[in-house]
Amino acid sequence: MSATETDRPSVDANDSGMAAKDPAKRRRALLIVAAVFILAGLAWFALWFFVFSTRVKTDNAYVGGNQVAISAQVPGTVVAILADDTQRVEAGQVLVRLDPTDAKVRLEQARSALAQAVRGVRQQTSSASSADAQVDAARLAVQKADADLKRHLPLLAAHAESPEIVQHLRDGLAQARAALAGAQAQSAAAHAAIEGTDVARNPGVMQARANFSAAWIAAQRNAIYAPVSGYVAQRSVQLGNSVQPGQQLMTVVPLHDLWVEANFKESQLRHIRIGQPATVVSDLYGGDAVFHGKVIGLGAGTGSVFSLLPAQNATGNWIKVVQRVPVRISLDNTELDKHPLRVGLSSEVTIDITNDKGSVLATTPTQQPVAQTDVYTQMAAKADAEAARVIRANLPRDAR
């Protein structure tokens, strides 16, 4: 027997021993792998249960805000532009001026008409007083004619007076009474135009006052004011442009009261409720700034419904597409002051849905205005004050 053949049995014995040990190692390896998978599953379940199931998240979210279109209210030619893109403007600040020539002419015409109306009422008041004096004179004439007739009637009975004279006195009394009736009618007509009101509240004066206020406001509207504070964008107006009422000249965007429109998939809306807290991370700042807000409302329909060309689903080649519904998230103004945002910026929104017992839709109408301005209210008050000055200037000195 050769040496090679002598060594072969010993090799086969070692292989047998290793083969006997392999099943135990494999079982341990399988147990370790199974334990790893079980632990990973438990960790994933805990992560889902305590984290992922308590929130919904989307990066299909954009910053929204009011975009106030500035337009002309009266026709005119642009003679000055006082604000440009990116500049800040305050509420009540003049943005554009139009040529005021025509408006000033119409204002002076309305001012003259108001003054004439006041003086006309004064004249009517004097005419009414004159008519009252004529009524008193006619009443005295009636009393005198009646007294003369009564004095001559006994003489007629005693045949001391002729019947012709007495008849003449009777005709005179009738004429005096007719004159009294005419004077009373004229007095009533004179008082009809002024009765029950003073000069300032006379219908003719009030009409002239309204026309003056309209002309005054039209003259003021040659200066186009900013209704809100914000930043100018999309300026399209140029010097010399002939603008018409309603024509957009620029836009003012308030960057203080902003919100986020987060477009969640329809499958994510099940637990979203009004009032739930939310966090917003803008792509502008990344993780350096986290905005905190809350859900203030869910859209009334999907984005495709309100598109210019809504999808026609009732067709044979229909393909199901997951729809999205906009969810509005309010933002904290103090955080916006520290880290200003811009309308249209991309962001990532996470909503905490732990408490899903709230309302999906608003249950009561809002009692507060969404936005308001008092710029135009001040203009109306100034017009009324100017009209009052014109009226006072045309009253008697003792009545001013």
From TrEMBL:
Q: Where do the Multidrug export protein EmrA/FarA alpha-helical hairpin domain residues begin and end? A: 101-221
Sorted alphabetically, the keyword list is:
Cell inner membrane, Cell membrane, Membrane, Transmembrane, Transmembrane helix, Transport
> Localized where?
Cell inner membrane
Task: Give the way it sits in the membrane.
Answer: Single-pass membrane protein
Give the protein family: Belongs to the membrane fusion protein (MFP) (TC 8.A.1) family.
Question: Which biological process, per GO, is one annotated for this protein?
Answer: bile acid and bile salt transport
Predominantly, its location class is membrane
p-hydroxybenzoic acid efflux pump subunit AaeA-like beta-barrel domain: residues covered: 259-351
- Give the residue spans that cross the bilayer: 29-51
Q: Name one Pfam family in it.
A: HH_EMRA
Q: Which GO terms describe its cellular component?
A: plasma membrane
Protein name in UniProt = HlyD family secretion protein
